[in-house]
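Problem statement: downstream parser choked on a complex file, so we are re-checking the raw output for the xanthosine-5'-monophosphate run. The parser issue turned out to be on our end (a line-ending mismatch), but while we're here, posting the original submission so the record is complete.
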Amino acid sequence: MDKIVVLDFGGQYAHLIANRIRRLGVYSEIKDGDVSASELSEYKGLILSGGPASVSAPDSVKCDLGIFDLGIPVLGICYGHQLIGDVLGGKVEKGKVREYGSAVVKVTDKKGIFEGVGDEERVWMSHFDQVVDEPKGFKVVASSEDCPIAGMADYDRNIFSVQFHPEVTHTPCGMTILENFVALTGAKREWSIDSYIQDVTAEIKEKVGAKKVFLLVSGGVDSTVAFLLLDKALGQENVYGLFVDMGFMRMNEGKQVEESLKKVGVSNLHVYDAGEEYFSALEGVYAPEEKRKIIGDLFVDIQEKVSNELNLNPEEWILAQGTIYPDTIETGGTKHADVIKTHHNRVEKMQKLIDEGKVLEPLSQLYKDEVRLVGERLGLAEEMVWRHPFPGPGLAVRCLCAKSEDYPENIAELEEKINAIVSEKGLKSKILPVRSVGVQGDKRTYAHPVCIYGDVNSWDGLNELSTQLTNQFPEVNRVLLGLQPDDFSELSIQNSYLTRDRISLLQQADKVVMDFIGEVGIDRDIWQFPTVLIPLGVGDEGESVVLRPVCSEEAMTANFYQMEFEKLRELVKRLSSLRGISGIFYDVTNKPPGTIEWE
Ligand code: XMP
């Protein structure tokens, strides 16, 4: 089968590029950015990914220069674009402004990868450095206001590069660009999800051999699809599914997991109630990464405990989980990637088992959209396939913990600058004394949300304002619209960690939200709808709720969902009737710069 290789420099979207190429029907693999050119002779084309480093940093990863002599088409993206600029004799410098999010590029030469695209295209940027002089033999073929060399081409050698990200859905012409590149490589389009199922089934059989499989189940789409795949490949008698109920599921969801798996014919599922163990392990824990580590480690401990209780001999059993690709990449699971957040299935203890070859992960190369396709092919019911994704650590990562007020150092000056911008739109603003995780330029951030409030009745201009604030002020990585009450100037914060009471309040708020979107028929328009509890009292005592509905395709990028205001007002009314909720916010941050989950 013809193949295209993606060289991974640690970009958050490196694997997404491979996903897109596969979508175009060509098999695509990932290799480390510094792989030797001699290992790449079997590929029809080569793509250099983005990455968190700066090409001018002494320890940044460089490619083997021999890759440009292989005689195959090359496409550089973001860091890949800068690398081509740098190593082929051009010049790369820090940009004047950081560009995270949407931008418009003018395409000045509609040939090669730009054939068939418009004169002006909306694209997705996430960078600071940029190419300021193109290398000899290259022509500048696209530019944006802040990035004059947003695209360049050496038509003689078939080398192309772009500063923006054609692989994300937020670059609408992206698939045309990638399709043009695939056509230039001449690779035959022979890959499909069916061929993937066939291959992975054969791989499962080979890896498991005469052993049996102990599968960790979370009840979401991924582990359910993994369960079905394993059952089909090996037979139910050879698979033991363990669902560890940590106590952080949605209201009544633990029971529903069992029922929905039974419905698809899975009868080999066992449930372990770990609520007590989890709440006591997380007592007095505040930092998101510490929480995540405890959650993941305890998961491995419980799995060990259960397998010991069951007397499962490691010589006869192999562990499996339904990890999908974003879990790996966001945990810094590839050589050059930054840790954005540690997913429960990628904590150190689990990673050690994976490195020892003791864990089977049949979906680890796939994105959610591909997993859903596999689920459909295996006969999973539509409502299960299209369920909103739910993180492994569940509501634990949606229940923000905080020890005390936590403001940026230069708060007064910062608030003044931000206020000057938002007051032009007739709004007010306030930086909140808590922090959440974000991702900017392929790096993790842990910064403050700014709340904007006032008389807002439409989303017009909010998207731009949100992008402007997070681009301009590094102390801020999220923008919230304050919905209730009317005034956010008086805030109080309580020392809060994960307790049953807080999870129970969050479960109630989450249920109000999920029931509401089902009732008004917008659940399918929204890709995922986290409801987040933050220990912030607005005016009186109490906690606040943040609504975080997003549109996405594969979770690597996302836009905040723009709910009709009439509906939103009704939802706010319902939420405010819950006891203990004093503030309601709506997250108007895209990804990047904000991750979907807050922790
Ligand atoms: P972020 O918050 O990084 O999330 O934008 C991207 C997607 O991953 C989900 N998520 C997780 N899924 N284990 C999971 O199985 C985890 O630890 C985890 N953390 C985040 C998140 O819900 C979103 O769909």
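For whoever reads this later: The CA atoms of residues 4 and 44 lie 6 Å apart.
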